[in-house]
Structure formats: C-alpha cells, structure tokens
Amino acid sequence: MQHRQLGATGPRVSALGLGCMGMSGMYGPSDRAESIATIHAALDAGIALLDTGDFYGMGHNEMLIGEALKNVPREKALISVKFGALRDPANGWGGNDTRPAAMKNFLAYTLQRLGVDYIDVYRPARLDPNVPIEDTVGAIADMVKAGYVRHIGLSEVGTETIRRAAAVHPIADLQIEYSLISRGIEDGILQTCRELGIGITAYGVLSRGLISGHWDKNSTRKGDFRAISPRFQAGNVDHNLALVDALRTIAQEKNVSVAQLAIAWVAAQGKDIVPLVGARRRDRLQEALGSLDVSLSGDDLAAIEAAVPKHAAAGERYAAAQMAHLDSERAHAH
Length: 334
Known about the structure:
This protein has 334 residues and is α/β, with parallel strands linked by helices. The chain has one domain: NADP-dependent oxidoreductase domain (TIM Barrel). It is 35% helix and 16% strand. It contains eleven helices and twelve strands. An eight-stranded parallel barrel has the order 3-4-5-8-9-10-11-12, surrounded by four helices. Strands 1-2 form a two-stranded antiparallel sheet. The chain is globular, with a radius of gyration of 19 Å.
C-alpha cells in the first residue's frame, strides 16, 4: 500500500481511505455481512483510514465499524469521525450543534459505539453558525490533551474558517468534496490548506456514483439520497452521463475502468490529497484499489481536462437548501 502524510502534523495514512457512509442506509439498503467483509478486505489490503460520521444511520455506522474492528489491533485502523449533525427519529435532519458540551457528549457516545478509547481524527461535519469555530476547535484540543482524540480535522469549511481554526490548534486535514465534476476547492480552499500544511481527504470522488461508470438512470432505489440530488435529476443526468462517456473513451485507451480513472485523477492533484472511496462491496473495493496502479501522464491529464472541463457538470452538488449551509461554498455565493 502506498502512503501519504495527512497534513504537516497529521498521521501517515494509506493513499486511499474507505468512506463507510453508504453502509448505513444513505444510498438505500445495504448488506451488513458484506459491509463488514468489505471493511476487513480494506484493512487486509492496507487501507487503514476508515471515515464515518456519528449521524450516519444515527450511530449505525459506528456500531458496524465497531463490530468489524472487534478483533483487529487498534493501531491497524485510523478512524476519522465527523460529529455535530442533529437527527430526529423520522430520519430527518435538524441542523448542527458544535458547542463544546455537545461535542463532548457526541464524542463519549462515539467512543462507546466504536468500542475504542480514542479517535484518530475528530471533526465537526459542518460549521455551526451559532458557535465560533475557535470554541469548537479549542474544546476538541482539550480532548486531544486528555487523550480521547489524536488529531483535529475540519469538513466543508471555507478559507476564513480554516485560518481561524488553524490559529487555535494544528489541523490535520480538511474533508471536502473533490472530483472531476466538483472542483470548487480549487478556488482558494486548496491553496489555503497547502499554505497552512493541512491535508485533504476528498470524498465524493465518483460524485456519488455518477461518474463511477456503473450508474444508469434506473439505478436509484428507495431511501437513496440521490433521488433528490440535482445532478441526478432529469435534464442534468443525461448531460452528466455524456461526460462519463467521454471519460470512458480515455479509460478504455488506458485499459482501466472509468472509476479507476476518476479516483486516480483526484490522487494526481497532489501528494497531500487522499481520496475516500465509498465502496460497500468487496468488488467495488477491488476496483478502487486498482486506481493506485493508474499513473496519469501530462497528456492523460490534458485529455481528461478536455473531456470534462472544470465547470462541465449540470446541477449543484447538493439541493439549494443544503448548499446554503455549506461554509465551503460561501465564496461562490453571489
């Protein structure tokens, strides 16, 4: 397994991470035994970074990972956890709470569900408009001192928030969406992270499966968040799948899959970037692992750029109401 350093102060991690969200119902039903087998296969392949959120399936995802890690030496897995998103019993969302007291409460439950005594990277999932980022990061820093957390991360925040957070405590990484068709990070956020020595864990590298090469218009199932995602709507989806066809031509020339090409493109954007792949099954995991063997020349990168130019995708990455809550997107709001 290749490794990358996660920021100047962060841990050394595998060059790919496993994003576990899809194992807990966000994309429709998933198979518990297959999910656990996929986590084990990832660890066996040397993928040590497991990414979750305490609100994925209201604790389901953490309990699942806890079960998978039961007989695994603790140091074999690096666990990254997002907190702060509030849920209700009907599966709804109720905003964010990152007050210090709330954070400690979330963390206590997370440690219990995962069955571990520390979290490798702990991060607020979104900026809480009611709580200064300094307060949240300062409180997590206390948890670092107490030994419950090893490193502090951020998620989906913009340049100003990143600077304010880093002034309080070293930040290991920013987790943010980054893919061939979601490149907002390139307009200042990436530069700020590099200046401050903060790594990037990139999620949505296949844009929720849209550019995986496996998606067709009949793929959405009940309970699948993609049913309301703008890029998957009628009108947009045909345009976006045409981009995938352009990528497929390049992938075939290189004898790799579309997904492998898309993951390799993200990894090629810098040694400080670690793509998170949301595989829920061993076959998709194997495919993602193959991306590590794809090397992209300057010509390849130019061909990919020509096939999928920077603002080529139709539709935003989230519905308007959710976009409004993203601190990372504030710079683009006109």
